[in-house]
Known about the structure:
Blueprint (H helix, E strand, L loop, with lengths): L7 E7 L10 H15 L4 E8 L2 E7 L8 E3 L2 E3 L1 H21 L11 E4 H5 L5 H21 L14 H4 L10 H8 L3 H9 L7
Antiparallel strand pairs: 1-3, 1-6, 2-3, 4-5
Amino acid sequence: MHFDTGNLYHIFNQGNNKDQVYIDNEDYYFFLRLIRKDLLPVSEILAYSLMPNHFHIMIFTDERCKTMIRQGGIIIDPVTNAIRKILSRYARSVNDKYGFSGSVFCQKTKAKCLSEMQNKTVDPFYKQDYYFNCFKYIHQNPLKAGLVDSLEDWQFSSYLDYAGLRNGTLCNKELASLYCSYRTESFAQICRDMSGMNY
């Protein structure tokens, strides 16, 4: 993984061997606290969804991404370092809590540069649509996976904040409006609509 300044990224990883990574509600909350502690200081978070065996996070990288960090014999960007710390701390906590051992997540976290994909076309409608589709995809994940009958029932995503049902402070709604066409009045209805393009 490598993160450059001024881009939107979709970050995701799943449990090792597709195993469950969040066992109880406190595990989800602990992971979110790690995101706030380690990732939020070095990037803007636009959306997230924690699922029983994987997670999705959409971020925007700004000037804070330029300050490189030395970790042992390598130099990495702050976002890569934050993801590394989150997964490492979470794994230690879960292993201690449940008596597990070894890796909790897959070794390689994936990060799709949405901005890079947008820049492949000159069509401004397509660019806006691509960001929006990822934003919608992340929020629809619990419904598509059959975890809930209504997105309002899944508390471990940013959906409730964007739908105006919770006053969360993890996500940057202004950037979501700018890049992902987020509008408070239409967001819930758009996410309920499972038709259309898949991300």
